[in-house]
Amino acid sequence: MLSLKGIHGYLRALEPEDLNFLYELENNTQIWEISGTTTPYSKHILQLYLDNAHKDIYEAKQLRLCICNSDDNVVGLIDLFDFDPHHHRAGIGIVILEEKDRNKGLGLEALQLLENYAFDGLHLRQLYANVLEDNEASIHLFKKLDYRIVGEKKDWIFQNKKYKDEILFQKINK
Fold first, then answer.
1. Residue 145: inside a domain, yes or no?
2. Is 1 contained in some domain?
3. Edge-to-edge strand order for the sheet containing 148-159?
4. Can you give the CATH number for the domain in which 30 is found?
5. Which pLDDT band holds residue 29 (cuts at 50, 70, 90)?
6. Contact 106/96 with Cβ under 8 angstroms?
7. Model pTM?
8. Which residues constitute the domain of residue 101?
9. Is residue 20 within a helix (H) or strand (E), and if so which, with residue range?
């Protein structure tokens, strides 16, 4: 049986009470460059998103889960996106909102839990991640879990009057 529970925390579906956390995260301009966000989200729009978060991954082509610590606090989000059941692949992304909650094993564990679900539960063959060249923590995280660098998108992200490269990581489940 697949588990979304680890030693440091667990993954769970979005709940209505996550509105304030989602509002804070989605409107944090420091993470806009990794999320592709260019304008703030209203609570109304985020509530509509939460109202539709129950949709099946096969219908929505994405899955967003909350990363919770052992104290049951939501500290981040982890996503499967561009879900393609025909080609058995999906993108994966992760964010832990507060600096104080990082480097405690939660991100690594969350990524492992979602990988297990993707490979064993959804029968995907591969996952990929897009990471900005200066996101050393994410680069370290994906390398630690045996994702391979398979490409580099030059001048891919334009933020703060500067272009940044994006690294493409891939993990194939053999």
1. no
2. no
3. 9-13, 63-69, 74-84, 89-96, 126-132, 162-172, 148-159
4. 3.40.630.30
5. confident
6. yes
7. 0.91
8. 9-125
9. helix 19-26
